[in-house]
UniProtKB/TrEMBL annotation:
Protein name: AAA family ATPase
Pfam families listed in its UniProt record: AAA_21
Source species of the chain: Paenibacillus monticola
Upper classification of the organism: Bacteria, Bacillati, Bacillota, Bacilli, Bacillales
Sequence ranges assigned to domain ATPase AAA-type core in this UniProt record: 153-228
Record-level Gene Ontology MF annotations: ATP binding; ATP hydrolysis activity
Length: 269
């Protein structure tokens, strides 16, 4: 299912070079991205791939979007959002979708790392549960009251059990298995964080399965060759001007790995 068909970036760039996000995307001004079931935003540090995910999530108004400001003000970011536009996909009857699935969300790499930390470090377990509840709409007073319940204690015990059972990579895989559900739009920022190459491939295969068979759509920012080479995805190279798609093996990171291992190939023979 294609929930989000396209996104057009603002074609206006402020003359002040310090205005965010205008100058992050000055090389992409007015560009239109057409999304597939899985679309990858590839680019090296500073290419704007994480910022682009946040721009899209703010424009769509989905969970996980971070407030955008420039010099402490939201005017410039809001102007950029107002001048950007998107188009939804179509349902099975060919009618344009009117709204995104309710569980659609933007997951930042920091969110994933926080979940791992919450599970693994007993000193932040209570804080982690409270953070989760407040992020889902519970007030601080309600969260404080909830800490006195049996359900809270049971959840705390379960997390402490997970702390003893899972490594970083295993915890990340557990996180994705619990949070990536059928029939949603997910914007994922570097989901390979803390994953070994083997688990990066496992995670990418899980995403392929959800997109192909369970009506989920993914827009993913990554530069991992293992993820890039496993996903059945359209790949936008944000390092290229003008914006263009590419095959995963053409990208700088994949080429770097190829040259490195080719240089040492005699060690593997």
């Amino acid at each position: 299912m294609i929930y989000l068909r396209s996104f057009r970036l603002s074609d206006y760039t402020d003359r002040n070079p310090n205005i965010y996000p205008d100058h992050v995307f000055k090389h992409l001004a007015g560009e239109v991205l057409l999304f597939d079931r899985i679309t990858v935003l590839y680019g090296n540090n500073g290419s704007g791939k994480s910022s682009l995910l946040n721009v899209i999530s703010n424009k769509l108004g989905i969970s996980g979007a971070e407030r955008m400001t420039s010099h402490g003000h939201s005017f410039y970011a809001q102007r950029f959002l107002d001048l950007s536009s998107y188009q939804f996909g179509e349902d099975e009857q060919g009618h344009e979708i009117r709204q995104l699935p309710e569980g659609s969300r933007y997951m930042k790499s920091e969110d994933i790392l926080y979940e791992i930390k919450k599970i693994q470090q007993s000193s932040v377990l209570r804080e982690g549960i409270t953070y989760e509840q407040i992020s889902k709409g519970m007030s601080k007073a309600q969260a404080a009251q909830d800490e006195t319940t049996y359900a809270f204690k049971e959840k705390l015990d379960n997390i402490q059990f997970s702390q003893e059972k899972y490594s970083n990579g295993e915890t990340s895989m557990q996180f994705f298995e619990e949070y990536l559900l059928p029939g949603q739009l997910y914007l994922l920022d570097e989901p390979e964080t803390s994953l070994s190459p083997t688990n990066q491939i496992r995670m990418a295969e899980q995403i392929n399965e959800l997109a192909r068979h369970f009506d989920s759509q993914f827009i993913i920012a990554t530069h991992s060759p293992f993820v890039l080479g496993t996903l059945h995805a359209k790949i936008y190279n944000l390092d290229a001007t003008p914006l263009q798609t590419a095959e995963w093996y053409e990208l700088d990171n994949a080429q770097f790995f190829y040259r490195f291992f080719n240089k040492h190939k005699q060690l593997f023979e």
